[in-house]
Amino acid sequence: YARVPNSPYLLQLEDVFLHLPLPSHPSVRCRSTITLCLVTRLIGHLTCDSVIKKKYQLPWRVCHRWFSQLATGLSSLHQYGLVHDDIKPDNILIEGNKEEMERGDFSNSNVVLCDFGLLCRDGTVGNVACLWWAAPERLEPL
Predict the structure, then answer these.
(1) DSSP the chain
(2) What is the pLDDT of residue 125?
(3) Predicted local confidence at residue 1, as pLDDT
(4) I need a labelling partner for 75 at 20 to 30 A (CA). Which of 3, 41, 68, 118 fits?
(5) How, if at all, do strands 13-19 and 35-40 pair?
(6) pLDDT value of position 84
(7) In a 10 Å sphere around its CB, with 0-12 CB exposed, 13-18 middle and 19+ buried, how is residue 27 labelled?
(8) The Protein kinase domain covers which part of the protein (predicted)?
(9) Domain ranges of the chain
């Protein structure tokens, strides 16, 4: 078990609780009887992946700030000997004013790294979720 260090650029877990089954009803279908719920702060609907797909023209300053924030978040993990192991545009959330961002104005936005499901200790062999985004040293030789 590894705890994610506190950083404004890493999504923090606020609470964990078990959701018990809903009462039986024809309109409600649930595969599981108990659901584990993870609670985080509300960030929004944009990821770096969605920004890339929409082909927004981002100013250099925004790109630099986002990269710096991402590097700061990763540095926080590395200081505790932790490796994220699933860094990709889908796991980088964009936080900011929704109306401004929908217009393509990201001047007041920040990035937050999320999805710590593959978090592991440095020096251990973790799972690689997406080969396209994996660091070469994390891949098994063919």
Answers:
(1) --PPPP-TTBPPEEEEEEEPPPPP-TT---S-SSEEEEEE----SEEHHHHHHHT----HHHHHHHHHHHHHHHHHHHHTTEE----SGGGEEEES-HHHHHTT--TT-EEEE---TT-EETTS----S-GGGS-GGGSPP-
(2) 63
(3) 45
(4) 41
(5) antiparallel
(6) 78
(7) exposed
(8) 1-142
(9) 43-138
Full pLDDT tens readout for the chain, 142 residues: 456 677 777 777 777 766 666 556 565 555 556 666 667 777 777 889 999 999 988 999 999 999 999 999 888 888 888 777 778 898 889 999 888 988 889 999 999 888 766 667 677 665 666 666 666 666 665 4
Alpha carbon distance 101, 104 (integer Å): 5
Q: What is the C-alpha to C-alpha distance for residues 14 and 16, in angstroms, rounded to an integer?
A: 7
Residue entry with tokens 């979720």: 129
Cβ atoms of 112 and 10 closer than 8 Å? yes
